[in-house]
Amino acid sequence: MGDKFPNYFNELVLKFVSWLDEAEQERLSSTVLHEACSYSLLAGGKRFRPALLLASADMLGIARERLRPLALAIEFIHTLSLIHDDLPCMDDDTLRRGKPTLHVKYDEATALLAGDLLFGRAFYQIAHSDLPAEVSRKAVELLGLAIIDLCDGQMMDLSASVEETPDSTDSASDRKRAAEELLSRHLKKTAALISLSVRLPSLFLTEAEDKEISLKLEEYGRSLGLLFQITDDIIEVTSDTQVLGKNADSDTRGGTPTYVSIFGLDGARQRADEAAANARQALSSFGEKADFLLWLVDYLLEREK
Ligand code: GRG
After folding, report:
1. Arithmetic mean of pLDDT, 132-136
2. pLDDT 10s digits, 213-236
3. Of ligand 1's atoms, which has the minimum distance to the CA of residue 228?
4. Residue 83 lies in domain
5. Is the CB of 46 within 6 Å of ligand 1?
6. Chain-wide mean pLDDT for the chain?
7. Cβ(125) to ligand 1 under 6 A?
8. Which of 133, 215, 224, 281 has its Cα between 20 and 30 A from that of 290?
9. How many domains does the chain fold into?
10. Nearest CA to ligand 1 atom 20
């Protein structure tokens, strides 16, 4: 297999970054606020969601160019969620994508408004495009739902940080409830946007095809998103800040329960394996066309940043 899949992943990332550079050059204004948005957008980041969206499009045989507005919209919303997540009233973080967070580089008001502006740009990008009307309508509906999930998940995250992580002295039912709460929080906070990225390309299929295929893509995306979050929790305790590009203990400083704090490192790895198995199962009917998306499952299981 060698470098085939990593190279393909890089190719997708480069394609997306070229779209992002073009979108930044066509910005509607060059005020400080727009510069602040560009600071966060162009700070790097793995571009995991847009690359996933393009890989799904390739698997379904949909021309990549048709996905341009949707890929940009997804990354705008993801970046906005990171900017707001880092604010003092949320996670209060100082480092993101290897650079000072937006409110540290500028100020809080600018960071808040930059996030709001990206929200607007995401929907403008979709509506101001030549996407077929029905694709555009459905994409807005699904993106709206994913954003609602993101906000719900973040709210759960904030409340979780003031509750105690159950330990061995807690009853089995307390531990079960904590595990269910953790699953629900991560499905909303992390898996919703990842799942949407995999699902969106199927909007270009016929309605009958979309109905059948979108369920499998969503299931894969949900499991992959969960796997992404579990491995995020694992590398938060096994990696250092320099490798991560964000503070290594950023999610645990507020005492928020994580897969590692609830299940221990081995338990978290076991849950990562289960999510990986579910993701593989969801794509079992796609044959070798799904090879890259299946490789991605192993890549996430082994990732160190
Ligand atoms: C209004 C869209 C909107 C959101 C507001 C703040 C908030 C609600 C939600 C925050 C959700 C959040 C920060 C989830 C974390 C998901 C996650 C694992 C992010 C890290 O993603 P990576 O590693 O980041 O792909 P890069 O920097 O590589 O893009």
Report:
1. 96
2. 999 999 999 999 999 999 999 998
3. 18
4. 4-302
5. yes
6. 91
7. no
8. 133
9. 1
10. 82
150 lines ligand 1 (CB under 6 A): yes
Atom of ligand 1 lying closest to residue 245 CA: 27
Query: Mean pLDDT, to the nearest integer, of 1-10?
Result: 90
Are 276 and 234 a contacting pair, CB within 8 Å? no
Task: Tell me what pLDDT residue 243 has.
Answer: 60
| Range list of H helices, the chain | 4-25, 32-41, 48-60, 68-85, 102-105, 108-127, 133-160, 172-186, 192-199, 207-238, 241-244, 259-282, 291-302
State the average pLDDT over residues 272-292: 96
Distance 79 CA to ligand 1 centre (A): 7
Output the pTM of the full model: 0.92
pLDDT of residue 164: 54
Look up the CATH number of the domain holding residue 257: 1.10.600.10
Ligand 1, atom 10, lies closest to the CA of 81
What's the CA-to-centroid distance between 134 and ligand 1, angstroms? Answer: 28
Identify which of 223, 280, 232, 269 has the alpha carbon closest to the alpha carbon of residue 252: 232
Does 73 contact ligand 1 (Cβ within 6 A)? Answer: no
The protein residue with its alpha carbon nearest to ligand 1, atom 16, reads 190
Distance (Å, whole) CA 252 – CA 27? 37
Q: What is the pLDDT of residue 247?
A: 61
* Rounded-to-integer distance, Cα 184 and Cα 33, Å: 34
Closest approach atom of ligand 1 to CA 49: 25
**What spacing in Å lies between the alpha carbon of 63 and ligand 1's midpoint?**
27
Which pairing describes strands 99-100 and 95-96: parallel, antiparallel, or unpaired?
antiparallel
28-52, pLDDT tens digit by residue? Answer: 676 899 999 999 999 989 999 999 9
DSSP state of 170: S
